[in-house]
Each structure stands twice: as structure tokens, then as C-alpha cells.
């Protein structure tokens, strides 16, 4: 008789075959020998015998049974107590347990099921019935194990999909080189934070930052060095612009921006100077710069207290204009301006 089983969704060619491993926990060697003989003609049934109920768990961990046959009447510890113990242990809690009774009393059967048994047999059972029940419970156990494996594989697969989906989302929202927000993400956050500033009548500041003569830097030192330098300077940005509400983004190769909600002009100037001095203090050599012998940065700072019906476009333009003025004044500096309400475009 074959012990193979067909899992749902599988064809006949993918039948999974398992050997049946039976562990008998029984203090009587005569009963054990009788059960062994009943199973001796079944080539795919491997029989193991444990005479000491206190060693049942150790034996079960060793042979990994597909069914445990458990005698009810044993000295020192009865089968009901041992069954509850096996059900509580993580290595045996899912193992099918068939209890062996000396009588056919209904109360004993109830006690067995309450203790966690899956089935029962009256000693000594009929050979055909014994083998049929062992095969039935073993196959049910194998199916459960295969399903549990499939569920685990599904959970792992779903977790990987979720992770990769998050990675894709991250890639679409962030700059690949620096990990900062990209232009699309920055524009979304700008509108959100501008609306928040309007509702709460609080100031908002914007920094536009451009690395001085960075195109010449790339041409002279090479793009790999340029990328390494961008990542290094990103560290200065992160150290200087640290609040969770601030939005730091890379707009183009050497151009960066930062939106600072709930920030007055004085606070924006302080942050901008931290960035400027932080880049300068790195003293990254730049022999092609017309400003210094090291890399520097120019900044434009714009500040406003937005009113209802206005848009952020004017603040962005003002920050750009301030950046241009910093460059015109000699670079490696910052220029700031406040946006008056009369200069703010109105949503129509």
C-alpha cells in the first residue's frame, strides 16, 4: 500500500512520498512486540518503541514520528498527563497522538480527547484497522506540514514583494546618489507644507543651494570623484538640516534645496550659514574654482508668512533670485529676501 499523497493543485506526477514513522510509548514489552509484529509486513512503516514515558519526548525528538501511539495506563505518569505534555511542547504539539485503551469505556475516550489525543484504539487492535488509522493520521500530518511550508513560503514571498515594492517606491521618490528627496517628492511636500503654513499662519523658509563651479570640478577630477564629493556634502546638509519636518532635496547635479517649515528669517539664515561653513570646512580641493582653492557653495534664502489663496511659486522664484545674487556677489555666500504678501500669486 502506498503512503503517497497528492497535494491540492498538484498532478499525479508530483505525488509526495513519505515513510511512516511510528513511536509507541508503552511500558509493556509484550504489547510493544505485538504491535511491532502487526506492522512488520509494511515496508514503509518504521516502528520505534519507548518503554519509559519520561523519555518519550527525547525519543520523539530523535526519531521525528508521524504518529505517536500512547498507552493510557502506565506507572508513575499516565497517558493523559503525557499527552498534555506533548501537546504543550513545540516539537511535538502538532504530532498526531493515538491513545491505546484497555477497555472501551466512554469516559476514558472523553478524557483522551480532552488531553489532546487525535484518536484512540482498543488494545490489541485489529491489524487492518491499526494500519489504516496510522496511515490516515500520518498522511494528514504530512499534508499539514506541506501546507505549513507553503504558507511560510508564501509569507516569505509576500514579505519580499513588500520589501521590493518599498524599494521601488523609495527609488521613485528619492535621488539615487544621495538618498535625498528628488524634485517630484520635493514639489509634493512644498505644496503640503505651504498649505499647512497658510492654515496656521506660520512662517516658512526656503533655501536654494548650488555648489560653486561644480561642472568644472567634474571635468577636472572626473565624475566618480564628483559623485563621491556629492555624497560627502550631503552629509553636511543632513547635519545642518536635521528636523524631521524639514525637506531636503537634490534638484539637479549640483543644485540642492531645503524647505524649512515654521522657520523665521533668522533661523533660515542660521541654517544656511551652517551649510555654507560646513562645506567650506571640508576643504575639498578644487583647483578650477574662481572663488577659493577648495569647494564652496552659494545659497539663496527666501522667507514668507503665506496667506490664504496664495501659492508657493513666488517663494521658489525668490529663492532662485537670491541664489543668483549670491553668485553675482562673488559666490561662497548667502543672500536672503522676504516675500511680501503683495508678491504672492493667488490661486484663482
Automatic annotation (TrEMBL):
Gene3D superfamilies: 3.30.70.270, 3.40.50.2300. The modification 4-aspartylphosphate is found at residue 71. It comes from the Bacteria. It catalyses: 2 GTP = 3',3'-c-di-GMP + 2 diphosphate. Its EC number is 2.7.7.65. It is an enzyme of class 2 (transferase). SUPFAM superfamilies: CheY-like, Nucleotide cyclase. The lineage of its organism: Bacteria, Pseudomonadati, Pseudomonadota, Gammaproteobacteria, Methylococcales. Keywords: Phosphoprotein. This is diguanylate cyclase. Residues 21-138 form the Response regulatory domain. One of its GO terms (biological process) is negative regulation of bacterial-type flagellum-dependent cell motility. Signal peptide: none annotated. Transmembrane segments: none annotated. One of its GO terms (molecular function) is diguanylate cyclase activity. Residues 202-339 form the GGDEF domain. It comes from Candidatus Methylumidiphilus alinenensis. One of its GO terms (cellular component) is plasma membrane.
Amino acid at each position: 500500500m502506498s503512503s503517497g499523497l497528492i497535494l491540492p493543485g498538484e498532478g499525479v506526477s508530483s505525488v509526495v512520498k513519505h515513510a511512516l514513522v511510528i513511536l509507541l510509548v508503552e511500558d509493556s514489552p509484550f504489547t510493544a512486540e505485538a504491535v511491532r509484529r502487526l506492522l512488520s509486513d509494511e515496508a514503509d512503516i518504521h516502528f520505534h518503541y519507548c518503554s519509559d514515558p519520561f523519555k518519550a519526548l527525547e525519543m520523539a525528538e530523535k526519531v521525528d514520528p508521524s504518529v505517536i501511539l500512547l498507552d493510557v495506563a502506565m506507572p508513575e505518569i499516565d497517558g493523559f498527563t503525557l499527552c498534555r505534555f506533548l501537546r504543550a511542547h513545540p516539537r511535538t504539539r502538532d504530532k498526531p497522538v493515538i491513545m491505546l485503551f484497555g477497555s472501551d469505556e466512554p469516559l476514558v475516550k472523553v478524557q483522551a480527547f480532552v488531553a489532546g489525543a487525535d484518536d484512540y484504539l482498543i488494545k490489541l487492535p485489529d491489524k487492518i484497522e491499526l494500519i489504516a488509522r496510522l496511515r490516515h493520521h500520518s498522511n494528514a500530518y504530512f499534508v499539514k506540514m506541506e501546507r505549513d511550508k507553503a504558507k511560510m513560503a508564501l509569507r516569505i514571498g509576500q514579505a519580499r514583494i513588500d520589501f521590493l515594492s518599498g524599494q521601488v517606491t523609495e527609488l521613485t521618490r528619492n535621488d539615487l546618489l544621495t538618498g535625498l528627496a528628488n524634485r517630484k517628492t520635493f514639489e509634493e511636500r512644498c505644496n503640503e507644507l505651504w498649505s499647512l503654513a497658510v492654515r496656521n499662519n506660520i512662517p516658512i523658509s526656503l533655501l536654494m543651494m548650488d555648489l560653486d563651479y561644480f561642472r568644472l570640478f567634474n571635468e577636472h577630477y572626473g565624475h566618480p570623484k564628483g559623485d563621491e564629493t556629492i555624497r560627502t556634502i550631503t552629509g553636511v546638509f543632513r547635519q545642518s538640516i536635521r528636523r524631521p519636518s524639514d525637506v531636503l532635496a537634490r534638484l539637479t547635479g549640483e543644485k540642492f534645496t531645503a524647505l524649512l517649515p515654521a522657520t523665521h528669517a533668522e533661523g533660515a539664515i542660521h541654517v544656511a550659514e551652517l551649510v555654507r561653513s560646513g562645506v567650506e570646512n571640508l576643504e575639498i580641493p578644487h583647483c578650477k574654482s574662481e572663488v577659493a582653492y577648495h569647494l564652496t557653495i552659494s545659497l539663496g534664502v527666501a522667507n514668507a508668512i503665506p496667506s490664504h489663496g496664495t501659492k508657493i511659486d513666488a517663494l521658489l522664484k525668490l529663492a532662485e533670485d537670491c541664489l543668483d545674487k549670491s553668485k553675482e556677489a562673488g559666490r561662497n555666500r548667502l543672500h536672503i529676501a522676504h516675500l511680501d504678501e503683495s508678491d504672492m500669486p493667488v490661486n484663482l
